[in-house]
Design goal:
By secondary structure, the protein is mainly α. It contains seven helices and two strands; from the N terminus they run αααααααββ. Helix content is about 55%, strand content about 5%. Strand 1 and strand 2 form a beta hairpin.
Length: about 160
Amino acid sequence: MTDTSISPLRQRMIEDMALRGFTPSTQRGYLRVVRDFAIFLGCSPDEAGTEDLRRYQLHMRTDGASATTMNAAVSALRFFFGVTLGRGDAGVGLTTVQEPRKLPVVLSPNEVARLLSAAPGLKYCAALGIGYGTGLRASEVVSLRVCDIDSERGVIRVE
């Protein structure tokens, strides 16, 4: 056991998260964000205003934080100010960041043919062909049964 004391504000935030059933990893993440925000401010985070939150987001962006990291920080700070402090006004200045969309890799017909020819047997070739052609996940392909395939209509039923 450690002799380090927990501030009443931190304890209240932990209790608020526990009441709402947050997982331990979410709680650690939220506490880390609030701690980093307090370090950025140089004072207690409950003294921050909307301009401080804006500056912190700019600081995160210039440090190269990913969109996922920034959105997690926004969630944590909105929870801290809105729930723990009861200040709905502070979360107004926080904005989420749009994650860039990536296009899927599409194989050429020659690459698909090479992929299918590399399968060790007919069963694996059929599974790879169905998976790639329909965009099904591996677990969905594995759970397919013959009755799930409607050859007349050209439809595959996935459960």
